[in-house]
Amino acid sequence: DADVTQTPRNRITKTGKRIMLECSQTKGHDRMYWYRQDPGLGLRLIYYSFDVKDINKGEISDGYSVSRQAQAKFSLSLESAIPNQTALYFCATSAPRGTANEQFFGPGTRLTVL
Amino acid sequence: TQLLEQSPQFLSIQEGENLTVYCNSSSVFSSLQWYRQEPGEGPVLLVTVVTGGEVKKLKRLTFQFGDARKDSSLHITAAQPGDTGLYLCAGTSNDYKLSFGAGTTVTVRA
Fold this sequence. Notes:
The structure holds two protein chains of two kinds.
Chain A: E1 4-7, E2 10-13, E3 19-25, E4 31-38, E5 42-51, E6 54-57, E7 64-70, E8 73-78, E9 87-94, E10 103-105, E11 109-113
Parallel strand pairs in A: 2-11
Antiparallel strand pairs in A: 1-3, 3-8, 4-5, 4-9, 5-6, 7-8, 9-10, 9-11
Chain B: E1 5-7, E2 10-14, E3 19-24, E4 31-37, E5 44-49, E6 55-58, E7 61-65, E8 71-76, E9 85-92, E10 98-100, E11 104-109
Parallel strand pairs in B: 2-11
Antiparallel strand pairs in B: 1-3, 3-8, 4-5, 4-9, 6-7, 7-8, 9-10, 9-11
């Protein structure tokens, strides 16, 4: 079984709809992250959480919100989806070893907003 | 503006040739990682380099961290079709967040 899972894997929705992407992990890591990936832009951080009671904005948090329901679960919501939120979304976890912050990614969700 | 600049953006070579991908920044990082991503999957960690001047080898892949900890390179010897993928570098800053480069798409033709 995969250590980091994401649901759904693909989603097509319409402008204005509320969407939730879910992430679960069995790695036992405290730190979880949400990124989006766009062609030519690499991965950009949306939100991150260092433990259940900690939520932090990343570089592109506008239009998104998150919830850390448990150590193993971190969900991302788009309150009112817009077409420029069409992208690949990745959840990741990490358990910092020294200064490395090595991350483990889920398989991604391909979101299309029409 | 990308904190980490990768070059080239695309690289297409014949099986058996060598290739080098570069990752440059004006910022100093406490560590730098390389990931490989295949279509339909998330990035997978290849290596972490921590010490300035460090060189790590992973079979036919050689990773180097610059002396000033601002840049890194990935060299693949005798590339194979299985090396095809998107290679991403990522630097860890003092607040423990990762900053990613835009990636280099490598295609190895059989």
